[in-house]
Amino acid sequence: MIELIPAIDLIDGKCVRLAQGDYDSKKVYNENPVEVAKEFEAYGIRRLHVVDLDGAASHHVVNYRTLERIANATGLIIDFGGGIKSDEDLVIAFDNGAQMVTVGSVAARQPELFGKWLNQYGPAKMILGADAKDGNIAVSGWKEESGQQLLPYLDSYVKKGVTKVLCTDISRDGMLEGPATSLYREVMEAFPGLHLIASGGVSCSEDILRLEEAGVPAVVFGKALYEGRITLRELGRFL
User: pLDDT (tens digit, 9 = 90+) per residue, 77-93?
Assistant: First the structure.
């Protein structure tokens, strides 16, 4: 059964969504992310993906107090990403309730630092953020392409011990046009033991079903929930 991971994206402590990472497209869905997380939990959701969009733009963790409030108010297993650029940021995330962190830009630009974190905290706590734009890894809140191709990039990190990857097709994120199922199938064929978390484009529960049929272990989604394209009740079929 595919693992369901709803996302809460934070700007100014509020639950928002962007389209293709464009901050100018920001739409506020709820000013109380804690209530959103509690509603997820009430319907049987066990995992949560929290993204600090302020942190991604500021290059350091910003919304850690909101992370702490969500962690204290729920029993959800939380992974946290956005703005994790230093040892201090990592400690802040874990100290404020994250059980796992998603790291993208540091892994692409400072592989030695990410490798140190991977050894220090272990692969169970470290999720590699592999965000793809036209087949290349994008960094800095998706504003820049790194020039590294997705599959060779994943191969290098799988060989270093990475077991969990959150992969987002940026062109689909927040667009409600369906996920990049063929891309994720290609990743799973290349790395069958990988715990791949698909992200971007989910528009309905049938999209989740297609990802499950493709053998994808987990999926992150948000906008479809907030826009009413998916209801928490209908997700019961996957729980």
Answer: 999 999 999 999 999 99
By C-alpha distance, which of 127, 70, 124, 122 is closest to 104? 127
For the question of residue 12 being annotated catalytic, the response is no
Contact 72, 33 (CB under 8 A): no
- Choosing from 52, 79, 89, 131, which is the catalytic residue? 131
Known catalytic residue at 131: yes
Say if strands 136-139 and 144-149 run parallel, antiparallel, or are unpaired.
antiparallel
Q: pLDDT tens, 168-218? A: 988 887 778 899 999 999 999 999 999 999 999 999 999 999 999 999 999
| Separation between Cα atoms, residue 24 and residue 121, nearest integer Å | 35
Residue 136 host element (H or E):
strand 136-139
Pseudo-torsion of CA 19, 144, 52, 101, nearest 10°?
120
Distances in Å between the Cα of 115 and the Cα atoms of 40, 146, 175, 177 are: 33, 18, 33, 35
Residues 9, 79, 89, 207: which is the catalytic one? 9
Strand partners, 220: 5, 199
- The answer to whether 230 and 221 are in contact (CB under 8 A) is yes
